[in-house]
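stage 2 :: seqdesign
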């Protein structure tokens, strides 16, 4: 199944919740007698309720409604207007990752339970399939069994891992991983970090030390700080995201478990509210179930016609 098919399939639960209602809103709005006017109040309210129910979020929903209401309906379907505006939300934060020094160092951050460690393994596999030669760094040295769990995913991906004993200094493990990557021509270095929001001071200090060590070894590193968010958590994930943005310099999102929620519209809320690009999406539990996010395919999948 191609990227479009996999993203579309992952949105099946969301579409089950909204497709019939969206079709009804579109049919009513696109009646010939309404096509020459702006979107009426009744249609706007129905569309607003639908978008919020899909977890698009209040702010993003208000933007979509305002944009749709402010445009002429002459010759344009409501479906197309909604899709155009949501595409614009993603386009506004679509920033390519610029890497000027090698190896690239990617810190993977997030609270425990979001799928952070499994995402590291899946990301390594995806990058390897794309022709890269990644190296995994096990820098979450304090959580029980974290290193063993990451080792299992590294083995599944067929990617080498640099690890240390439980309780070792995470920054020292990152140093060793970068040195190993240079010696063995591995790139990028994917760093699994600890996720402990409830001890924010310790987390801040730990991440800052990792960043200092990485920057000392590779100018500009870490070039990527990838925050893993659980789609099933919905809007609560945005609260977690802001905490990590404050302490970790996040510049990209990996959205996991999109296939496990009926509120897949949260991707729109993430892009709109956090002003960060979604780089990867988890569409299943297998090693190959992390795909590069494609806004065009996502929007087409979310609002595809039922018939």
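stage 2 :: out
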């Amino acid at each position: 199944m191609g990227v479009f098919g996999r993203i579309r399939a992952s949105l099946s639960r969301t579409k089950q919740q909204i497709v019939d209602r969206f079709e009804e809103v579109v049919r009513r709005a696109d009646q010939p007698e309404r096509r020459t006017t702006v979107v009426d109040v009744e249609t706007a309210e129905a569309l607003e309720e639908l978008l919020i129910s899909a977890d698009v979020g209040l702010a993003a929903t208000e933007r979509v409604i305002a944009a749709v209401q402010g445009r002429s309906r002459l010759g344009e379907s409501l479906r197309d207007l909604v899709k155009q505006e949501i595409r614009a939300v993603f386009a506004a934060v679509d920033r390519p990752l610029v890497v000027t020094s090698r190896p690239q160092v990617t810190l993977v951050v997030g609270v425990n339970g979001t799928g952070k460690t499994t995402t590291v393994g899946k990301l390594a596999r995806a990058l390897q399939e794309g022709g890269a030669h990644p190296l995994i760094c096990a820098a979450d040295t304090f959580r029980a069994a974290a290193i063993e769990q990451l080792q299992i995913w590294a083995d599944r991906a067929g990617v080498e891992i640099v690890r240390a004993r439980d309780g070792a200094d995470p920054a020292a493990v990152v140093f060793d991983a970068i040195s190993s990557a240079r010696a063995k021509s591995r790139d990028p270095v994917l760093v699994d970090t600890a996720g402990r929001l409830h001890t924010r001071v310790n987390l801040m200090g730990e991440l800052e030390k990792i960043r200092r060590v990485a920057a000392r070894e590779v100018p500009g590193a870490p070039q990527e700080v990838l925050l893993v968010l659980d789609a099933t958590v919905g809007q609560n994930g945005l609260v977690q995201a802001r905490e990590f943005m404050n302490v970790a310099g996040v510049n990209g999102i990996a959205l996991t478990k999109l296939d496990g929620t009926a509120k897949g519209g949260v991707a729109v809320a993430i892009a709109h509210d956090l002003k960060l690009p979604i780089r990867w999406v988890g569409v299943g539990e297998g090693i190959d179930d992390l795909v590069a996010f494609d806004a065009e395919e996502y929007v087409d999948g979310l609002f595809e016609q039922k018939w």
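stage 3 :: structure notes
- Strands lie at 105-109, 135-138, 161-162, 189-192, 224-230, 252-256, 278-282, 290-292.
- The chain is about 50% helix and 10% strand.
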